[in-house]
Amino acid sequence: MKRIVIFASGSGSNAENIIGFFQTKTTATVTHVLTNNEHAKVLGRCERLKISSLCFDKNDFIKTDKILEFLKREADYIVLAGFLWRVPSKIVSAFPNKIINIHPALLPKYGGKGMYGMHVHRAIKENKEEETGITIHYVNENYDEGAIIFQAKTEILEKDSADDIAKKVHKLEYKHFPEIIEKVILEANE
Description:
alpha/beta, 7 helices, seven-stranded mixed sheet, 7 strands, 40% helix
C-alpha cells in the first residue's frame, strides 16, 4: 500500500475528502498531513480523523532538509490540497511525478503566484468567463506549470457570483481529486 502525505494551508476540506476516500482502499492510505499554518482548520480535521499532522515553517521547508528527510521516510506520494507555498526543487527532484496538486481553474488560465481560492473565482467572474473548472497536475518548480493530468469543466451562468463559482468548483474537486490520485498511483504501479 502506497503512503500519501498531504500538504494543506487552510480549512482542509479537500484533505478530509481524500483521507475519507482512501480509508476504504487498498491502493494507498493518507499517513500524515503537513501544514505551514499552525492555525489551519485542517489540524482539527486531522485530530478528529486520527491522522498524524505536523506544522513546519519556511526554514524547515526551504533552508534545511527537515521536511525533505521526513518525506523520504514517510511518503510515496505527496498531494497538495490547498497548499500555498511553492515546493522547493529539492523536494520536486526527490519525488518526480509523485507530487500532485489541484488548481481551481482551467490551467494555464488563472494560474501562478497569488492565484488561489477566491482570488481565482473573483478574477474569473470579473473577466466574464463562460466556464471554469479544476486542473489536477504534477508539481514542478514553478507555480501551476507542471504537466496536466486531468481537467473538469463547469458552466458559469451570468447570475453566478464568485461564491457560486467557488461552490461549483468545490463540487468538481470533491468528485474528481481522490479518484485521479488513485488512478495516478495505479497507473504508476502497473
